[in-house]
Amino acid sequence: xxAKSRLExxxxxxxxxxxxxxxxxxxxxxxxxxxxxxERISRAAGQGGADLIDVACDPELVQxxxxxxxxxxxxxxxxxxxxxxxVAAGAAxxxxxxxxxxxxxxxxxDAAEVLELTRRTRELLPxxxxxxxxxxxxxxxxxxxxxVDLVAAGADIIQTEGGTSAKPFSAGSLGLIEKxxxxxxxxxxxxxALIAASSAAPVLCASGLSAVxxxxxxxxxxxxxxxxxxxxxxxxxxxxxxxxxxLREALGATAGAIVVA
Length: 261
Prior knowledge:
- The chain has about 260 residues and is of the alpha/beta class.
- About 45% of the residues lie in helices and about 15% in strands.
């Protein structure tokens, strides 16, 4: 089965969001197993107009997030053996990464390990849509090559990261742009590397993004964005919905934007 046919198994609204390059994924957190937190984030994602919710790889969280949001669910893990139960619970897709939660613990993922995780996941779940995050610690040219190799190994979507490596110096909008710079650079480089390799795999830009920078991600070549901390660090449900709506509006204004090489 080719990647295109797997993507065509996604809900039609999700396919349209990818095709129009305006997909908004709200990330609850790979290590967030707090049901109350996931419920708040998922409800805000649904009310705010997101397209997809990314939760920790747990069947009960999949069912909870789907019930309160009405949206398709992606589950994230670095253990391929956990994915099958989440898919059986209703997850529309699975993701290896991102790895931000592991870096403070000194856990580093290299290209060889990510490739092996991808091959193992594809072996276990040959027909499920698979997104794979490219580790931001690699040099950009190595990220490009890994992305091409991941698609060859069965990845359907490539995701970038980089927020944890950013060191913003400024306040306001300039600081938000500085925070997003690593993942924007990765989206730009990887999307072009995939095009050069004649790959149609879409790129999701994630980690360190805000309403200021999500239009830049689309201009850099991404088909969508993943946003976590800007939403899940908040405790006020109304504020969470407002952030999601702001991201939705920022992305909606960029649908069909022209990418300049």
